Known about the structure:
- This protein is of the alpha/beta class.
- It has helices at residues 14-27, 45-48, 55-71, 87-97, 112-117, 120-127; strands at residues 2-8, 28-40, 77-84, 102-106, 131-135.
- It has a 5-stranded parallel sheet with strand order 3-2-1-4-5, with helices on both faces.
Amino acid sequence: MYKNIIVAVDLAHGEAGKALLNRAKALIDEGGTIHLLHVLEDVPSYIAAELPRDLSERRQAEARVELGLLAEGSDVETVTDVRSGAAASQILQAAEDNDADLIMIASHRPGLSDYFIGSTAARVVRHAQCSVLISR
Length: 136
């Protein structure tokens, strides 16, 4: 079905990430690759000035370890990727970088603020150049 799948996970919601990864394994072609992605939101500069200088590197390292644990034991080629920035734009960029034919992302039930601002999943759906599967 698919050769390159981007599975965007929020490590704060580990069970949703596991469920997405299991769905991706069912959809991937033999010889395909799953790109497990976590995006760290940037810390505003006025807050970053008060934080330890190596905090960003520590956050990246911790996220890599958690993604590695999530991908551990997979019988499908799984590549982990941790990026920093706005989640929607980084997910879309990862899809472009890896020539993805499917993006998988979990979504929460929309609240009032999502109707005015738009959730990450909604932004990805609106701008993706490939298919998007949203899991609730």
